[in-house]
Design brief:
Order of helices and strands: EEEHEEHEHHEHHEHHEEHHHEHEEH
Strand order of the largest sheet: 5-4-3-6-7-8
Radius of gyration: 25 Å
Largest sheet: 6 strands, parallel
Helix content: 25-40%
Strand content: 5-15%
Shape: elongated
Length: about 375
């Protein structure tokens, strides 16, 4: 059965029925498309022969879960036409090419909107679609460096610490792209008019620091590392090494949590150092010495059930086994891979990991059927060129 030309599918999230066309890339684009797929959208990924750079074995690429894949050579004579056939039937398109590449391939916003005026065309880049650096190559670490956020992270006597690619690619990039395309989809459904969403990692990452810029303007933030309340400069907001070389995280900001933290540490005499910056050096040394006297697991037991805002720093392999995360199902096992479960959660339209990572080109025939792609003369629709 179909509804409005779309196949009826079980409800697997609030975006069930939304069609997303993803032009394969690396980093923030695939993650954004995964999030849309986790929320129930029918995401079709256009893979190209040979795959994108830095790709891992497709069987383990969790960012391609809940998606389907077709294989199209965009440089072949009929490649752009095949993409436009899909774009005509999509609600959202996601691409992460350098500015101008999609246009040169014949699949830019102008060509897509000529076929589908309601299409939301999401563009994911590091530098954005314009500006002096727009045509230049780059990666997460360079993008966050220019926004000032990288310079905030780490110890004052060491180079800035690189937060994997979580801050730029995914927080400043993917999540802003998802917010943008969903907002534009709401507008398109209300007006019948699609638009281009320019999601730049530099823009999103800078936006994440809005509160810090306000504090800086008010004189409540020093423009240097580890000198502030939330950047490790405060001795009761940071991490400490334990006797076994592991670490505990402390976030006892409010006074009542700070007092409980000191009580459980056995340092009640330092209660007056909470707001006295001149004693923060002493406070840090005393706290560090206490944590160094026991193992991480011993300190975890000490703070268990308290409101001291202290937690063990777990590794990636340890995290899924923590009792709280296990009870909530924060991680799930699917197709032999332990991975984060879809987030956030919905009371009426629950989400789930429905399928393993899509294999390039594996869903060619099913997508052509479900999306109603027309048969082209002397050729197969959305051909599998593997």
């Amino acid at each position: 059965m179909t509804t409005a030309g779309k196949p009826t599918r079980p409800c697997n999230g609030p975006l069930t029925g939304v069609r997303v066309l993803e032009l394969a890339g690396i980093g923030p684009g695939p993650f954004a498309a995964m999030l849309l797929a986790d929320l129930g959208a029918d995401v079709v990924r256009v893979d190209r022969p040979g795959g994108p750079g830095l790709a891992i074995d497709p069987a383990y690429d969790v960012t391609n879960r809940n998606k389907r894949s077709v294989l199209i050579d965009l440089k072949a004579p009929d490649g752009p036409a095949r993409v436009l056939d899909l774009a005509e039937r999509a609600d959202i398109l996601v691409e992460g090419y350098r500015p101008g590449v999609a246009e040169r391939l014949g699949i830019g916003p102008e060509e897509c909107h000529a076929r589908n005026p309601r299409l939301v065309y999401g563009r994911m880049t590091g530098w954005g679609q314009d500006g002096p650096l727009a045509p230049r190559a780059g990666h997460d670490v360079a993008y966050i460096a220019l926004t000032g956020t990288l310079g905030m992270i780490g110890r004052p006597d060491e180079p800035p610490a690189v937060p994997a690619n979580l801050l730029g690619d995914y927080a400043g990039g993917s999540l802003y792209l998802v917010v943008g395309v969903l907002a534009a989809l709401h507008h398109a459904r209300a007006t019948g008019t699609g638009q281009v969403v320019d999601a730049a990692i530099v823009d999103g990452t800078a936006h994440l620091s809005a509160m810090i810029h306000g504090m800086l303007a008010a004189g409540g933030w020093q423009d240097r590392r580890a000198a502030n309340l939330l950047d490790g400069g405060c001795p009761y907001y940071g991490t400490y090494e334990t006797a076994d070389g592991r670490h505990m995280a402390v976030g006892a900001l409010e006074e009542r949590f700070y007092e409980e933290f000191l009580r459980l540490l056995g340092l009640d005499d330092l209660a007056g150092a909470h707001k006295d910056w001149t004693r923060w050096g002493e406070l840090r040394e005393r706290i560090a010495a206490r944590f160094a006297s026991r193992t991480r697991d011993e300190w975890t037991a000490v703070f268990e059930g308290s409101d001291a805002c202290v937690a063990p720093v777990l590794s990636l392999s340890e995290a899924p086994h923590h009792p709280h995360l296990a009870a909530r199902g924060t991680f799930t096992d699917h197709a032999g891979i332990t991975q984060p479960a879809p987030a956030p959660r919905f009371s009426a339209t629950p989400t789930t990991v429905r399928t393993a990572p899509a294999r390039p080109g594996a869903d060619t025939e099913a997508v052509a059927r479900d999306w109603g792609i027309p048969q082209r003369v002397n050729d197969d629709p959305v051909a599998d060129r593997d």
